[in-house]
Each structure stands twice: as C-alpha cells, then as structure tokens.
Amino acid sequence: MPQPNAAPAAPAAPVMLVARQPILDREQKLLGYELLFRAQAEDREARITNRDAATARVLLHAFVDFGIKRLVGESLAFVNLTRNLLLNHQHLPSSGKQVGLEILEGQKFDAELVEAVRTLAGRGYTIVLDDFAFGDGGPALEALLGLAHMVKLDVLAHDAESLAATVQRLRRHPLKLVAEKVQTREQYERCLALGFDYFQGYYLLRPENVAEATLGESRINVMRLLAAIENPATGPDELDAVIRNDAVLSYKLLRLVNSAYFALPIKVKSILHAIVYLGLGRVRGWVRMLALAGLEDRPAELLKTALVRARMCEQLAARMSRERQEMAFTVGLFSLLDALMNAPMETLFDKLPLPEEVRAAVQRGEGPLAPLLDEALACERAEWDRLAEGGAHAERLAHAYLSAVEWAEQVYGFAGAQAAAA
C-alpha cells in the first residue's frame, strides 16, 4: 500500500528497441552498422512525429547505457539526424570518431545547415547524405556535397537508367557511394558494376544462386559433420568419436572451452571431458558454430547474423525446457544455412536428421519455435509493427536483441580467430 506522503512515482522510461543493419564494402567486409530504433511509448503518434527525441534517445542509449563498443565493436555507427538536431549539435557527443551522421532526405538545405555540418565534420563525424536525390538545392546542396564523406542512394527508388545517371553525376565529387535497400543478388551485381563503394540490404542473407548451387568439397565436409552431430543416436561417446576424427575441429573446440571466454575453474583435457562437463547439447551447439565459421568464402556478417538469431531465439525460449532452448538456438543458427552453404534449404535439410520442430520453424514458419524466430527477424529488420507493443514483452525483446548482439560479437571474434589459425 502506498504511503500517504510518498512522492509520486517517476514515469517509467520508454523501452528502446534498437536494430542494426550492416554496411559492407566491395569485398563484403564491414564498414559499420546503421542503427535503427523505436521507442515503445504509450503515445503512438508522438513516437512517429518526434524524431528529434527518438534520435536523442538512441544516441544516449548507444553511447551511455549500452556502450557503442558493445553495439558495433570497432566499426562505425550510423544514425539518422533531423535538421533540428544538426543545428543543436551541442547535444551530440563531442567526438564523432566512430559515428556517421545521416542527413535525412527533405531537410531544408541552407547556409545555417551547411555551417552546422561543417562544424560536425571538424569534430570527426562521418557526414552522410541519406536517400539522396538531386533537386533544387542550390549552392547549399553543392556545399554539402563538398563536406559529405558518403552519399546513400535507395536502389528501389531508381530505375536502371536514373541510377546510372545519378552515380555518374555524383562521381564529380570526392565521396563514397552507398547502395541501400539492395534486396537481391541481381541488384547487388548491378550496383557493383556501377562502381558503388558500399552496400546495405537483405541481399547478404540470401544464397547467391540457389537454382544452380552445388556443394563444394568443403561444404560437403561441413554437411557430413552436421549430419553426424544432429543424429539422435549420437550420444557422448559417438560425438567424441566424430569430433576426434577431425583434428582441426578437436583443436578449435578444446581451445574454445579452455579460453578466457568460458573461464572454467578446471582445464578441460579431452573432447569427452568437455562433453561431460559442459553437456551434450552445449557442445553440439559449439561444434555447429565452429563448423560454419570455417566457411571462409562467406561474409563474416552472415555468420554473425546467424549467431545473433541463434542466441536471441535461445533467450526467448528461456521459459521452455532445456531441450527446447537448445532447439531454439539451432533454429536461429540454421535459419541462414542456405545462405551460408549457398544451396537450397530443402536440399540441406534433407541431408540433416533434424528434429521436426526445428524443420517446421525454419522451413515452414510453423510450430512452437517459429514465433521465436519471427520475433528475432522482426528485431533484426526493425519491423517494429510486427512486434508486441509496450509492456514487459517489448522490454524483454529489446534486452534479448542487444544481449544477443554483444554475445555474437564476442563469440565470432573467437571463432574467427580460431578459423584463421587453423
């Protein structure tokens, strides 16, 4: 019961949903992430119209509450800014060394804005003109093009002819071009031919050529390993034998479990010891991850995305049985198996003796694990309207996603080093 003289409770801070989308260079290496966000406030209209407040909250959340290093590592973080925040740049972090500021389309381009952008560029911020289109910007637009480091072009907003013409015109300026909303491999190849420097979009998450894909020798070996560990008849002794038959995998796994990441109180001396100490399901999960990390010709961000999905699905399954939690991890990890292996999902799953709940969730979007993957995908793609609105569930999703991002960065950092050392 509240006390009569108690001060009124402060309103709860709005839950911030944050997603990140990678921006890659021509070699599929990471430049940085665009941070996408939405506050889960009760006032839906305010959430839409008050873009300045939303941007300020995500900057505060990224830099202070969560920590920019945990969210994007050593890469750049890109955020959208309105004219008002650009002009009131004293509210932004003093150093922009790791931050790209995307100037939104439709802003009023004038001398005041140019001067603010000049100041921010001097503080180390990477200046980006977002959703760019040549219009009646006059001298201010030309000045901004001179200050900008990058220009983003929405490939879905242009036909082939206008996109090529815009690229040719922009090449008069010493800046980098980003193709955004690249959805298909064909669009990516077209933008690559046009000379774009960076790429952003869902093309990365799709196989390159599903219709003609064939498994090379390295992928056949990975599939053999996955089939062996997914076999329900594979117990501790059988899994020990499977791993020990692959000297490189044995070395990677023992280094992993004895690393500072696990900080185990004992030294694990053998694969069987690891299975007994950590559990069969946990070791299976690490072997899946290490096997896929060995696919050197696939972009690093692809496996990172799969790891984020896997960890998030596992966390969202926290109230389920331990067996279901392990299956949820597999659902997230294998949701990108076709892109990682560059082969049709049906072909791959036909070769793996997976539980029906895993197959149903990944292939058909059905069963008790499917909603977990659906929510992970919605967070990843910043499709906020697909998520439950408000309340504890929104907060749980926000924390699960950010925690999964941090976990994936740490784990991939170790797995990538292991793959390189093998």
From TrEMBL:
Domain of life: Bacteria
Pfam families according to UniProt: EAL, HDOD
SMART domains linked: EAL (SM00052)
Domain EAL residue range list: 1-221
Domain HDOD, first and last residues per copy: 215-400
PANTHER family, per the entry: CYCLIC DI-GMP PHOSPHODIESTERASE CDGJ (PTHR33525:SF4), PTHR33525
Protein's recorded name: Putative signal transduction protein
Organism of derivation: Mizugakiibacter sediminis
